[in-house]
Amino acid sequence: MFLRPLSFACLMLFIGSTSHALTLQEALASAEKIDPQVQSALANSDAARAGIQVARSKLLPLVQGVGSYGRTNQTSNQVDPNYGLYSQKYVNSTPNSQVYLKQAIFHAADWVGLSASELQNEYGLFKLAGAYGDLWLRVSVAWFDLIAAQETLDIQTAAEQSMQVVAYQAQRALDAGLGTKDSALEAKAQLAFTRSNAIEAKLNLAARQKSFESLTGIDGQTVLKSNLNFSKKYKALPGNAKLFIDKTNTVAPEILAVKMAEEIRRLQLKQARLGSYPTVDLYGSYQQTQNYNINQIGLGVISSQAAVQVTIPFYSGGLYEGQERQAAAYLESASADIRATELKLLTAIQTYWATQEAQIDRAEAVQEMVSSGQEVVNAYRMGVAAGVKSWSDVANAEVILTRRRVDQVNAISGLLKAQAQLLSNLPVNDEVWYRWLNALSFEIKKKSP
Q1: Mean pLDDT by 10 residues, the chain (449 residues)
Q2: What angle, rounded to 10 degrees, do the helices at 241-251 and 253-274 form?
Q3: Which helix (H) or strand (E) holds 300?
Q4: Which fold has domain 6-59+111-271+319-444?
């Protein structure tokens, strides 16, 4: 009930067109097909489903047929006083067929085992839903890291180009006797600094690209061709932390899985206690035998039998007692897992909800700082022309503006990753996930020819 892999919704995967911007939904759809954790959870779910059939078979009739055919060649020798020694050969054939039936009448432990197997199947579905949620989180984080790395490289590259102009102008001013040596040296130093930042950003982008490729199977170069850019929109998830916690406690696959595990352990404890109870079985058989030896030609025997068997365990060497103690300990552990999981999710949601709100405030503040920083750069450039500012002042202002732009990218990326962390606690077919995915807005930069 939690499983609606995105690959069913996104049938057309972005292959390589530069006119199409790869969406996060398409990245998720591609990752679902190759992720080993999802594949493992799918296999475990199939195994749990098959376990129901195995448990049910212990309560259904067991019918077996047995057939056999025997053939004996026999030679007898006899001495006759009148005729001497003579021999005679005989061939004996013995076909046999039997049908055997066993039906469990009273197996209390097996009935409880069947119920536990059905719950185990539900547990497998919850774990599978959790695997999808974890995958969506990992892909979302890799996606935002890749876009942030790309945007950071664009910012650092633009800053390097701008700083080259500043350094050139500072050197020209020095050569013309209009500038100072320290201003020219400062501009060169800032150029070297911005160039090193651009190189670092390029290396970081390559690492993010490899990580994204291994996770989704999509060529990172293909993603880079789309030239995505963050939209300047900041919006919190609907509701508040308390409402989100309440919803998580109701629908989170991780919570439902540990609660289901407790129910399974409770049934297993009951099954262990019923293991020492008597069992009752019905047996029946039908047998047909035909004898074709020389002394009993055509002799056939048909027999049928029905019986009720009662099995009462008297001594098992401590087997049932040990199983009961073991099941009781597992139940206690499962109950503790519920409390631990609820506490972990509570702490995580409170933390990431606060992070979300803080990153929104930070992104809005940095946006204002970027705007003011750009104004400072423009004013300093005009000041150079008026003779009241130096090119080193422009260089320092450019560095500050670049840092603020990178901070803005990191703030938006941090906000979106915090929201992905929150959403990973919900099943992936929850409407909140899809509203969030559809609300993500990325602008496609147009490359200059």
Answers
A1: 40 36 82 94 94 93 86 69 67 81 93 95 96 95 90 90 85 83 86 92 93 88 57 77 93 96 96 93 88 58 90 89 94 96 95 93 89 90 83 84 91 92 95 87 48
A2: 40
A3: strand 299-311
A4: Outer membrane efflux proteins (OEP) (1.20.1600)
The pLDDT score that the predictor gives to residue 6 is: 42
What span, in angstroms and rounded, lies between the C-alpha atoms of 271 and 262? 14
Beta strands in 55-162 (DSSP E): 62-80, 84-106
Beta bridge partners of 96: 68, 289
- List the alpha helices (DSSP H) in 176-240: 181-216, 220-226
User: At what angle are helices 181-216 and 391-423 packed, to 10 degrees?
Assistant: 20
Task: Confirm if 148 and 409 have CB atoms less than 8 A apart.
Answer: yes
What's residue 377's pLDDT?
Answer: 87
Give the whole-angstrom CA distance, residue 320 versus residue 302: 42
Domain ranges for the chain: 6-59+111-271+319-444, 62-106+278-312
Confidence (pLDDT) at 290: 72
C-beta separation of 234 from 364 below 8 A:
yes
DSSP state letters, 328-362: HHHHHHHHHHHHHHHHHHHHHHHHHHHHHHHHHHH
> At 151, which amino acid appears?
E
Residue 319 identity: L
Closest to 92 in 3D by CA, of 73, 117, 113, 68: 73
Q: How far apart are CA 229 and CA 291, in angstroms?
A: 90
